[in-house]
Amino acid sequence: MHLADILALRPVPAAGLLMALTRRCPLTCAHCSTNSLLTSEEHPAEWFARFARTIEREDRPEVIMLTGGEPMLRPRLVADIAATAPTMVLTGGFFAPRVPAALAGVAHVSVSLDVHHQREVPQAKVFRLVHALAGRGTAVSFHVTGAGPDDPYLARTIDTVRREFADRVPMLVGRVRAAGRAQAWAPAEERAPADGHRPCTMAAWPAVSPDGTVTACCNQDVIDHRPVPGHLRLGHVATDDWRSVRTRCLTSPVLQAIRTGGPQWAAGRSDGGYCGTCRTLGTTAERPRPAAAFLEQQVVRAQVGAGPEGFIRRYGEARFAELVMLGRETHAV
Ligand code: SF4
């Protein structure tokens, strides 16, 4: 499953499921957005495995994206989840260059590459890992992060990866966000336009937090703070099943409104910032929605039409958006 095919699904409600299997991580990267350490929180694997077992073939997500912390600290859980639906693992690659057996059934492996990770896992080891995975037929990509589009590290690393892998391995290029351990030093950034009347694609895929709570978005503030606002809480992996989580995601009027026109459009006011306004919404949007489903479909269609590059232009480093397409022509879907 090529990176571009996964990102093409990102605007489609409930087409994917994000699962943070643990907050623990053996690496201590200075920019870690989840503030992960080996001693961080971790909850029973059975909660996550139970939820994965509720996924039925006929209404399974088209992709499950496993994150953390470091998801590969729970290899058995990764293998169990990968047996239920096509699965992507986002990893820091602490095990490089060895390929863990748990990755055998995984559809896509994306490895982090940035100046902070490279201090923990040398680039040469990461490259050997990605060569080994690609050699076994696993789809691979890099998640490259820098300080901004002009960061010389990005230009240098992108050039190195393109040469090393002959333009066959795609890259998702992003920026260090002011979250987790980077909160104290990374610049805060307003991602939404001033009027805020743009759909929030982040409300499309349910996201499982390390504590098992299922939220309607993967915004780090929502993942980290409790209680979760009612309209953003979809359930818990210890007690709910995929079908009910998916139904709540698809049919909640307020989530439909956020996905259609953004939280400020849904609220009919624009004084609290983009996500700030979202967190104050009730379980029903204030704006009337006489044709909510139809409107949402039009908006989703437009975003899907913009393709994976359109998604990166909005949520990643726009200058490097086309890198998500590398290797797409030669990739067997
Ligand atoms: S607007 Fe709401 S749904 Fe979208 S990222 Fe912000 S908090 Fe999440």
Structure write-up:
The chain has a single domain, classed as TIM Barrel. About 35% of the residues lie in helices and about 15% in strands. It has twelve helices and nine strands. A nine-stranded mixed β-sheet has the order 6-5-4-3-2-1-7-8-9. The radius of gyration is 19 Å and the shape is globular. Iron/sulfur cluster (SF4) binds near residues 200, 203 and 274. This is Radical SAM core domain-containing protein.
Strand content: 5-15%
Q: What structural category do the secondary elements indicate?
A: alpha/beta
Radius of gyration: 19 Å
Q: What does the oligomeric state look like here?
A: single chain
Q: Total domains, how many?
A: 1
Low-confidence stretches: none
Q: How many helix segments?
A: 12
> Order of SSEs, N→C?
HEHEHEEHHEHEEEHEHHHHH
Q: If strands are numbered along the chain, what order do they take across the biggest sheet?
A: 6-5-4-3-2-1-7-8-9
Please summarize the sheet with the most strands: 9 strands, mixed
The molecules bound to the chains, other than polymers, are:
iron/sulfur cluster
CATH superfamily: Aldolase class I
Task: Assign the CATH architecture.
Answer: Alpha-Beta Barrel
Helix-residue proportion: 25-40%
Q: Mean of residue pLDDT? A: 93
CATH topology: TIM Barrel
Q: Shape from CA axes?
A: globular
How do the helices and strands line up, and which of them pair or pack?
Blueprint: H1 3-8, E1 16-20, H2 45-53, E2 63-67, H3 75-82, E3 87-91, E4 108-113, H4 115-120, H5 123-135, E5 139-146, H6 152-164, E6 171-175, E7 207-208, E8 213-215, H7 220-224, E9 233-236, H8 242-251, H9 253-261, H10 263-267, H11 274-279, H12 292-315
Helix pairs in contact: 9-12
Bound molecules: iron/sulfur cluster.
Residues 200, 202-203, 216-217, 219, 222, 258, 263, 274-275, 278 line the site of iron/sulfur cluster (SF4).
